[in-house]
């Protein structure tokens, strides 16, 4: 398609000594603009994708894919319900849980506590927690009535460690002749976890299910059933059968999947991703306009050369291909380096953030504000391919008009005064 002399002439014009220094500078700025736009788009979409995957993994890993809540907030005979729902296709585990609010007292300090009662074997099977134990162990969880598992952020804030004591106090206490007496119980820390989500690592407390039942006065009842599937995307397929099983068993309550629980949140994330893609694509569009201006300036400065080539027998299509090679090369190089630089930066983003924080002394990524301990990044190959295609397509389109204008140069007029 392209002849050898066309490549030779195009590469000569692309070289630093091939044309005016001013045009060279403009061409470099055009290349840098495409590089910057593509790189920024790759990094931004990787962070947005990583943020979604991180939150989705932590929300589901902590709360399960489907939640059954009985009307009235309590259910008995939950073991039979667990056995019934466990046989549904795609169901991996069903966990009976009990949650209640309390005040956690550490010496003179106090904080809000969301206490979750759970069976020992269920907590050990909850990979998000059991695989992220930083101190202690879950092996003896449930052996004592004062066992408690807390998050790393809470432990750091109040200098807690394995063996430390803390007290839980709830207003749902005993009724006496003098009124309701808050229920107070002391616990001993046996394990500390860090899942990377600030709220979970700061406010969640795990205690054995039977201890929680006694503490919150539930008797032999639980507050909900958490259902974990083989994959989050199977919830749409599994939901109808779970609902039918619950109806057939005569269980009064509602069943909610993770999409219903977090619909508005994840929809907002998707809208934000789409908006960021469109907005940052404008950087590439601006860089493409620079390519057009660079090519027009190059055509103007090489009018005499074009006329000479035409008189020597070069066709219009040949001139078009020469300048098409020049413009597309700028777009290709800018896109290539942008993708490579963006992917590299996305893979080392946390290191860059740490370096900036050390150099400036400011907090770039605040876990307390953004709920995730480290800046996430997840490179989606399909998104990188889409960005590459968009950048190359715009770059190629930008070369068409200047290349045609160069081909339409009249050699007689160009050489009239030479």
| Radius of gyration, in angstroms, nearest whole number | 32 Å
Total count of helical runs of at least 4 residues: 17
Biggest pleated sheet: 10 strands, mixed
Oligomer: single chain
Count all strands and give the number. Answer: 10
Provide the succession of SSEs.
Answer: HHEHEEHHEEHEEHEHEHEHHHHHHHH
Distance between the termini: 33 Å
Which key terms come to mind for this protein?
418 residues, alpha+beta, 2 domains, ten-stranded mixed sheet, elongated
Structure description:
The chain is an alpha+beta fold and 418 residues long. It has 2 domains: 4-57 and 265-414, no CATH class; 72-251, no CATH class. Helices cover 57% and strands 20% of the residues. The protein is built from 17 helices and 10 strands. Strands 1, 2, 3, 4, 5, 6, 7, 8, 9 and 10 form a 10-stranded mixed beta sheet that branches. Helix 11 runs parallel beside helix 16 (381-407) and helix 13 (316-347) packs antiparallel against helix 16 (381-407). The two termini are 33 Å apart. The mean pLDDT is 82.
List the helices and strands and how they pair.
Blueprint: H1 4-14, H2 21-63, E1 66-70, H3 78-86, E2 91-106, E3 109-118, H4 120-125, H5 127-130, E4 133-136, E5 147-151, H6 152-158, E6 165-176, E7 179-193, H7 198-203, E8 204-208, H8 209-215, E9 224-229, H9 235-248, E10 253-257, H10 258-261, H11 263-301, H12 303-311, H13 316-347, H14 349-360, H15 367-370, H16 381-407, H17 411-414
Parallel strand pairs: 3-8, 5-7
Antiparallel strand pairs: 1-9, 1-10, 2-3, 2-6, 2-9, 4-7, 6-7
Helix pairs in contact: 1-13, 2-11, 2-13, 2-16, 11-13, 11-16, 13-16
């Amino acid at each position: 398609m392209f002849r050898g002399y066309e490549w030779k002439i195009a590469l000569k014009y692309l070289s630093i000594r091939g044309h005016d220094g001013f045009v060279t500078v403009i061409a470099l700025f055009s290349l840098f603009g495409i590089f910057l736009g593509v790189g920024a788009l790759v990094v931004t979409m990787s962070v947005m994708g990583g943020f979604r995957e991180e939150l989705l993994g932590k929300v589901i890993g902590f709360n399960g894919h489907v939640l059954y809540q009985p009307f009235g907030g309590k259910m008995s005979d939950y073991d039979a319900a667990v056995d019934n729902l466990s046989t549904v296709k795609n169901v991996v585990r069903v966990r009976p849980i009990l949650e209640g609010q309390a005040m956690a007292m550490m010496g003179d300090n106090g904080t809000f506590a969301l206490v979750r009662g759970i069976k020992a074997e269920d907590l050990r099977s909850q990979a998000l927690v059991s695989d992220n134990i930083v101190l202690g162990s879950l092996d003896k969880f449930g052996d004592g009535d004062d066992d408690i598992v807390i998050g790393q952020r809470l432990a750091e804030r109040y200098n807690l460690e394995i063996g430390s004591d803390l007290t839980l106090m709830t207003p749902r206490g005993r009724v006496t002749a003098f009124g309701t007496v808050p229920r107070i119980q002391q616990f001993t820390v046996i394990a500390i976890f860090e899942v990377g989500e600030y709220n979970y690592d700061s406010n969640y407390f795990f205690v054995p299910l039977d201890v929680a039942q006694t503490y919150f006065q539930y008797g032999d009842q639980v507050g909900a059933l958490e259902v974990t599937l083989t994959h989050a995307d199977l919830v749409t397929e599994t939901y109808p059968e779970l609902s039918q099983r619950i109806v057939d068993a005569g269980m009064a309550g509602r069943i909610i999947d993770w999409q219903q629980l977090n619909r508005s949140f994840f929809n907002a994330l998707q809208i934000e991703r789409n908006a960021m893609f469109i907005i940052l694509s404008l950087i590439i569009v601006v860089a493409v306009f620079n390519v057009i201006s660079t090519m027009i300036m190059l055509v103007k400065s090489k009018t005499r050369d074009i006329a000479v080539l035409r008189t020597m027998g070069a066709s219009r299509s040949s001139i078009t291909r020469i300048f098409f090679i020049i413009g597309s090369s700028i777009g290709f190089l800018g896109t290539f380096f942008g993708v490579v630089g963006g992917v590299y930066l996305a893979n080392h983003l946390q290191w860059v953030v740490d370096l900036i924080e050390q150099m400036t002394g400011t907090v770039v990524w605040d876990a307390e504000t953004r709920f995730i301990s480290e800046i996430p990044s997840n490179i989606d190959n399909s998104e990188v391919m889409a960005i590459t295609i968009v950048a190359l397509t715009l770059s190629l389109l930008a070369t068409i008009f200047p290349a045609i204008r160069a081909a339409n140069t009249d050699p007689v007029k160009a050489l009239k005064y030479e």
